[in-house]
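C-alpha cells for chain A. Residues wanted.
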C-alpha cells in the first residue's frame, strides 16, 4: 500500500478519535455543570451548643447556586433572643434553655425553588440544680442534699439557700453556702439539714449564680411537692 494512502488512513483514524472524545466530553459537560452549580447547604446539624444569655453566632454556608444568596427560617422557631439575617448569620443571646428544631431555607438569584435543611440547636441550662438526696425527715430533723452544675465557660458566684417553710410562712434556713462554682463543674453535692420543731414544712431550694463581668444572673429552684411532717420534738 502506498505510503500516502497509509498516512491518510492514519490521519482519518486520528481525526475520528478526536471527534469522538470531544463529543463525549460535550455530552457529559452539562451534567457536570449542573452538579457543580446545584445549591447545597453545607452546615452540619446539630449546631454548636450554647446556654442562656451567652453571645452566639453561626454563619450558614452554601455551595453552588447563583449569587447572591438569601436565607430565612422556613419552619419552626429559633430560641427567643436570636434571629437569622438575610445573609445567613444566626446570632443573639438565647433567653431560655431547651432543644430547638427549625428548618433553614436558602435561595439564589436563579429563581429556582429554595433549598431547605433541618437543624437542631441545644441551649443547655447554664446553672442546673437537682436533688442528690431528696429532702426527708429524720427524727426531729429535715436533711437532704442537692447537686449543682455549671455548663458555662465562666466561673459563677453561687449562693445556695435552703428554707423550710411551715404553714405560718415563717421560713427557717436549713442550708446556706456561698462560693465560686467553677466552670465545667458537674453534680457538686451540697448537703443541708437542721433540727426543727414539730410541724409540716415545705422545703425550698434556691441556687442563684452571678457572673459580674457579664452582668448576668442565673437562678434555679426546686421544692418538695408537699409538706414534710416532723413529729418528734417540742
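Reply:
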Amino acid at each position: 500500500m502506498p505510503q500516502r494512502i497509509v498516512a491518510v488512513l492514519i490521519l482519518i483514524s486520528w481525526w475520528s478519535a478526536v471527534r469522538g472524545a470531544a463529543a463525549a466530553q460535550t455530552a457529559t459537560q452539562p451534567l457536570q455543570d449542573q452538579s457543580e452549580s446545584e445549591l447545597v447547604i453545607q452546615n452540619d446539624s446539630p449546631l454548636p451548643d450554647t446556654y442562656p444569655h451567652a453571645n452566639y453566632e453561626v454563619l450558614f454556608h452554601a455551595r453552588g447556586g447563583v449569587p447572591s444568596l438569601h436565607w430565612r427560617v422556613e419552619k419552626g422557631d429559633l430560641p427567643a433572643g436570636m434571629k437569622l439575617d438575610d445573609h445567613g448569620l444566626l446570632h443573639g443571646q438565647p433567653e431560655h434553655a431547651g432543644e430547638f428544631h427549625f428548618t433553614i431555607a436558602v435561595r439564589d438569584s436563579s429563581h429556582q425553588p429554595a433549598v431547605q435543611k433541618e437543624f437542631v440547636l441545644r441551649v443547655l441550662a447554664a446553672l442546673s440544680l437537682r436533688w442528690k438526696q431528696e429532702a426527708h425527715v429524720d427524727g426531729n430533723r429535715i436533711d437532704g442534699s442537692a447537686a449543682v452544675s455549671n455548663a458555662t465557660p465562666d466561673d459563677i458566684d453561687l449562693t445556695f439557700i435552703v428554707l423550710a417553710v411551715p404553714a405560718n410562712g415563717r421560713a427557717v434556713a436549713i442550708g446556706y453556702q456561698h462560693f465560686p462554682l467553677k466552670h465545667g463543674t458537674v453534680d457538686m453535692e451540697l448537703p443541708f439539714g437542721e433540727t426543727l420543731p414539730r410541724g409540716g414544712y415545705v422545703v425550698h431550694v434556691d441556687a442563684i449564680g452571678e457572673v459580674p463581668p457579664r452582668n448576668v444572673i442565673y437562678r434555679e429552684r426546686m421544692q418538695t411537692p408537699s409538706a414534710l411532717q416532723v413529729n418528734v420534738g417540742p
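The domain at 40-123 is CATH 2.60.40.10 (Immunoglobulin-like). The chain has two domains: 40-123, 127-230.
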